[in-house]
Structures are given as structure tokens and as C-alpha cells.
Write a structure and sequence with these properties.
The chain has about 190 residues and is mostly beta strands. It has one domain (about 45-190): Polyketide synthase dehydratase (Thiol Ester Dehydrase, Chain A, Roll). About 15% of the residues lie in helices and about 35% in strands. It is built from 2 helices and 10 strands; from the N terminus they run βββαββαβββββ. The longest helix has 18 residues, at about 95-115.
């Protein structure tokens, strides 16, 4: 945004966001901190997608792109996610729906282990190795990196047939409602 003084002698530019498009080289490959993509260690619960969208992440049907059961444990969460079937431009960055769904996965983890209903407020870096497509199914996985009362930070991966499609570093999730929304007791780990 460019701003000018009333006299026009002083101007200032404000940068709201920055996007860099580049070809990721071999140094840009981020190995996940887990050995097996589709398995979680430790005590794990499964939550059906219909329950997620009815009780935990109440968004319209266009954005309900977790399919089947979501598995959640203290080390992270994973779910099959859809490329969606609604109108969206997938030419430049791929379908936006898997990225949106991965944030729903992080939201469920936050309700279970941090006791908050968190919403995405940003991310540090997103590397697209292979564009996601509408009407395709992917496996999404999130791992908590930092957990405080104010902010949850996750790293996330999106796979298709064991091939990494995207790596999203530093997904920032926050309780933007300031406590007006709270997770149901049945999902909270501390209520067991």
C-alpha cells in the first residue's frame, strides 16, 4: 500500500505480505521428523470427519475436505484430505482445499491437546513440490513445533501416494475469539 502526505511531498509504502516464487532445489527438501507417514506413535484417537465438521470445525460444505477419520495423538495428527470439487483456480499453486484442510487438522490437534479452538493466522514457508488437484485424495500430517497459550505452531506435510506434494513450515494457529469458542469436553485430553 502506498500512502502520501496531504501535500504529496512525503510517501511511504507498507508491505502487508510477501510471496517469493522460485524453483526448490535439493537443499529445499525438508525431511519430516517421522519415519512412517501414515502412522502416529502413542495414545491416539480417531475422529470421524462428519463429527469434525459438525462439532469442531463448523464450516460450510465447500470447505469440509477432511475425508474419513482423523487420527490425533500428542505427536501430531493425520487425515486423508480432498482436493475439493468446487470452483477454484489450481493452475498457479494447485487446489487450495488441501492446504485449508491441513489447517482443520491442526485445529483439531489444538482442541485436543491445547484446549483451544485455534484459527490459522499465517505460515512461515510453503514449498510446493507437486501441485494438488481437485477431486484427488491426499494424506495430510501436522506436527506441533511450539505450543503456548497464545500461539500454536505446526509443520505440515501433504502427500499423494507416498510422494510429498507440499511442505508448510510454521503454520501459526491462534484463538482469535479470545476464549469465546471452546472445545467440547469429549475432545479435550485434560478432561479424560
Amino acid at each position: 500500500t502506498s500512502l502520501k502526505s496531504k501535500t504529496g511531498t512525503i510517501s511511504r509504502e507498507v508491505e502487508h505480505a510477501r510471496a517469493e516464487f522460485c524453483v526448490a532445489g535439493p537443499k529445499e527438501f525438508f525431511m519430516p521428523p517421522f519415519r512412517v507417514v501414515d502412522k502416529l506413535r502413542g495414545d491416539c484417537i480417531s475422529v470421524p470427519s462428519i463429527t469434525i465438521y459438525r462439532e469442531l470445525v463448523p464450516f460450510g460444505t465447500a470447505y469440509q475436505n477432511i475425508t474419513g477419520d482423523l487420527s490425533v495423538a500428542s505427536e501430531g495428527a493425520l487425515a486423508y484430505i480432498s482436493g475439493g470439487n468446487r470452483d477454484a483456480d489450481e493452475n498457479l499453486l494447485g487446489s487450495p482445499f488441501p492446504l485449508d484442510a491441513i489447517m482443520h487438522v491442526a485445529c483439531v490437534w489444538g482442541q485436543r491437546f491445547a484446549g483451544i479452538v485455534s484459527f490459522p493466522v499465517g505460515f512461515e514457508k510453503r514449498i510446493i513440490y507437486q501441485k494438488t488437484k481437485k477431486r484427488e485424495e491426499y494424506l495430510g500430517r501436522v506436527v506441533p513445533v511450539s505450543v503456548t497459550k497464545e500461539l500454536l505452531i505446526f509443520d505440515a506435510w501433504i502427500y499423494k501416494d507416498d510422494v510429498m506434494c507440499e511442505y508448510i513450515k510454521g503454520v501459526k494457529m491462534k484463538d482469535v475469539t479470545k476464549g469465546r469458542m471452546s472445545p467440547p469436553d469429549w475432545i479435550r485430553k485434560d478432561s479424560e
